[in-house]
Amino acid sequence: MNHEITAGEPAENWQDHANCLGVDPDLFFPERGASTREAKEVCRGCVVQQDCLEFALQNGEKFGIWGGLSERERRRIRRQRAASARSILGA
Predict the structure, then answer these.
(1) Residue 6 placed within a domain
(2) pLDDT digits over 4-45, tens only?
(3) Which of 32, 45, 67, 78 has its CB surrounded by the most CB atoms within 10 Å?
(4) What is the C-alpha separation between 25 and 30, in angstroms, rounded?
(5) Using an 8 Å Cβ cutoff, are 15 and 48 in contact?
(6) What is the pTM of this model?
(7) Count of domains observed in the chain
């Protein structure tokens, strides 16, 4: 579910509605090889999960769990989007 921005609410305030608000940030930046399960569980069902993911994708976040996805999972989305854009431009 996507948080809808209401009149007078700046778009950058999506963080105010996040499940992770007040959670130790270290949970979302696990050591290499450590489990991401707990962080992803916090993200599950978050009303701004998609906003968080888009923020990470648009800002090139290379580390941590954003929008419930790991660095590797976000790289896959960026590659898919780039390939899609190339196919549209090449059409």
Answers:
(1) no
(2) 544 445 556 899 999 999 999 999 999 989 999 999 999 999
(3) 67
(4) 9
(5) yes
(6) 0.80
(7) 1
